[in-house]
Amino acid sequence: MIKDRDEISKIQKACEITDECFKYLQTYIKPGMTEKQIAKEIENYYTQNAEGLSFETIVASGENSSKPHAVPTDRKIQEKDIITIDMGCKVNGYCSDMTRTIFVGEPTEEMKKIYDLVLNNQKFALDQYKDGANARQITKMVESNFKLNGSYDLIHSLGHGVGLEIHELPYMSYRFDTMLRENMVVTDEPGIYIPGKFGVRIEDTVQITKFGCISLTNSEKNYIII
User: Fold this and answer.
1) Phi, psi at residue 55, to the nearest 5°?
2) pLDDT (tens digit per residue) in 59-83
3) For the chain, which residues score pLDDT lower than 70?
């Protein structure tokens, strides 16, 4: 679970390529494209710039974004859509993992409310991530805030370890009473999903340090409108 300097360097490089891919996507995605088309473009980018995908890309638009483990479909991107993209690549066998939720045109007030709630909790969790912090306790604090601000559920883990496998120990979950340790590499990925309407997930891969954490993925997290 604790990575050495060489391992962290490889994960960091994979994360940098993921940030670059996402920057490119913001100029690429247009209404009328399908989820599958965007996912294929991500795969092509990673094939050209890394060792390919670290997991099957999720591109989920509109109502499909309400499914946390959505599979890209032939649904076309529309004006006023919300799109969740969960993506990652490999460098020397080591993985990256990042999720961003973007808007096609100005988001609705309901979308903004959910997005703000997820982002605030994602940033809150990052502030808690450090050597000696308890994964279960952090997860419960995020769950409690979701409940307090709209009775929303955190229906999947807050995060997981990343390394040679895309999902490794430790798991950031109320099921695991795990202490974070310096040089663990984990994700922070709260999400809220409103069945049949839309969902929001924001995820970074981070390195745990003695007194905090360093985000290895650094793409924009404020409203991203294309």
Assistant:
1) -165, 170
2) 999 999 999 999 999 999 999 999 9
3) none
What is the C-alpha separation between 119 and 146, in angstroms, rounded? 11
Question: How far is 193 from 197, CA to CA, in rounded Å?
Answer: 8
The two structure tokens encoding residue 91: 């460098």
Whose CA is closest to 138, among 125, 147, 148? 125
Q: How many Cβ atoms are within 10 Å of 182's Cβ, its own excluded?
A: 15
Q: What integer pLDDT is reported at residue 148 of this predicted model?
A: 97
Please give the sequence-ordered ranges of beta strands (E in DSSP) within the chain, or none if there are none.
58-61, 82-87, 90-91, 94-95, 98-103, 159-161, 168-172, 185-188, 191-194, 198-201, 204-208, 213-215
C-alpha span between 219 and 226 (Å, rounded): 15
**Structure tokens that stand for 76 in this block:** 């076309």
Q: How far is CA 80 from the centre of its chain?
A: 21
Residue 36, H or E segment: helix 35-49
The pLDDT assigned to 93 comes to 98
pLDDT value, residue 132: 98
The kind and range of the H/E element at 61 are strand 58-61
Compute and round to an integer the Cα radius of gyration of the chain.
Answer: 17
Taking the alpha carbons at both ends of the chain, their separation in whole angstroms is 38
pLDDT, tens digit, for every residue of 27-50?
A: 999 999 999 999 999 999 999 999
Cross-strand partners of 200: 192
Q: Give the integer Cα–Cα distance in Å for 80 and 143.
A: 29
pTM above 0.85, yes or no: yes
